[in-house]
Amino acid sequence: MKYKIGLKLYASNIEYAKIADYEFKRGSFDYIELYVVPGDLKKYKSVWEKSHLPFIIHAAHCFHGINLSKREYFPANKKAYEEAKKYADLLRAPIIIFHPGLAGDVHETARQLKLFEDKKIVIENKPFIALNGKRCVGGSINDIRVIMQESGAGFCLDLTHAIKYAYSNDIDYIEYLRRCMKLNPAIIHISDGNTSSCFDEHLSLGKGNFDFVRICQIIDLTKQQRFITFESPKKISAKLRDFKKDVTFFKNIMKDGVFK
Fold first, then answer.
1. Is 231 helix (H, G, I), strand (E, B) or coil?
2. 240-258 pLDDT, tens per residue?
3. Taking Cα atoms as reference points, which of 118, 100, 117 lies closest to residue 109?
4. Per-residue buried b or exposed e for 73-97, using 16+ beta carbons within 10 Å of the residue's own CB
5. Rounded CA separation 75/77 (Å)
6. pLDDT score, position 70
7. Nearest Cα to 99, choosing from 133, 73, 137?
8. In 74-185, at which residue ranges do the beta strands (DSSP E only) sit?
9. Residue 65 is part of a domain; what is its CATH number?
10. Could you tell me the residue range of the domain that residue 120 belongs to?
11. Which of 2, 32, 75, 183 has the smallest number of CB atoms closer than 10 Å to its CB?
């Protein structure tokens, strides 16, 4: 298999720890992508450290007061990075994901990331407009390329964000995804949504109108190993059955050769 399946959780989602450990041992997924909030480490680190599962870390973003694209946010941004790094070191995570920021300057984003001097960092592409109506930094391919070149960061391709950016700018989303793939993402985020909306929905696969047959052809995972994190909604009462349903949906679409 040329890719690894990821389960997205917050560090505070400790109610998932036991079922996640069980499903990992059953082969339902290959790693957890853990979103960390500054200040959470002391509360939750022991739970995840005991799990001995493979992890990828997602650093805090604008919902928690982080904005890499603005210089005045640097103290908070640095604190968020330091917290994410502690998690990554503790859990032996090979990747730390960052969002580029809101209503700021792409070169400032690159400058701050470069100051962190961490080869684990990858930058995630964003939609054109955030849920709060502000314009995102890192929506365009050019923004992502600038950040990668000036900071040395890798790339996290969020499929939904790319599709939303394409819609907002009247670009064919299939062609836009092809261009995004040329940046060689180390990790991909997947969820469903509606192609006629500029806002992120994070729907379960099959609940929107994304053309996953064509999308899976574009992100052809037979050529090199990538991480692919499922960001669709989950309910603790479902005991990850909703997550597994999405994974099955995805696997049924992918070419047979991928799974040999």
1. coil
2. 999 999 999 999 988 644 4
3. 100
4. beebbeebbebbbebbeebebebbb
5. 5
6. 98
7. 137
8. 96-98, 121-124, 154-158
9. 3.20.20.150
10. 3-259
11. 75
With vertex at residue 99, the alpha carbon angle to CA 9 and CA 120, rounded to the nearest 5 degrees, is 75
Domains of the chain: total: 1
pLDDT digits (tens, 9 = 90+) for 196-233: 999 989 999 999 999 999 999 898 766 677 899 999 98
Q: Is 44:14 a contact under the CB 8 Å cutoff?
A: yes
Radius of gyration of the chain (CA): 17
What pLDDT was estimated at residue 222?
62
Nearby residues of 7 by Cβ (< 8 Å), 6 or more positions away: 20, 23, 28, 29, 31, 32, 33, 229, 230, 240, 243
Eight-class DSSP state of 135 = B
Name the CA dihedral angle for 45, 18, 191, 113, rounded to a multiple of 10 degrees. 10
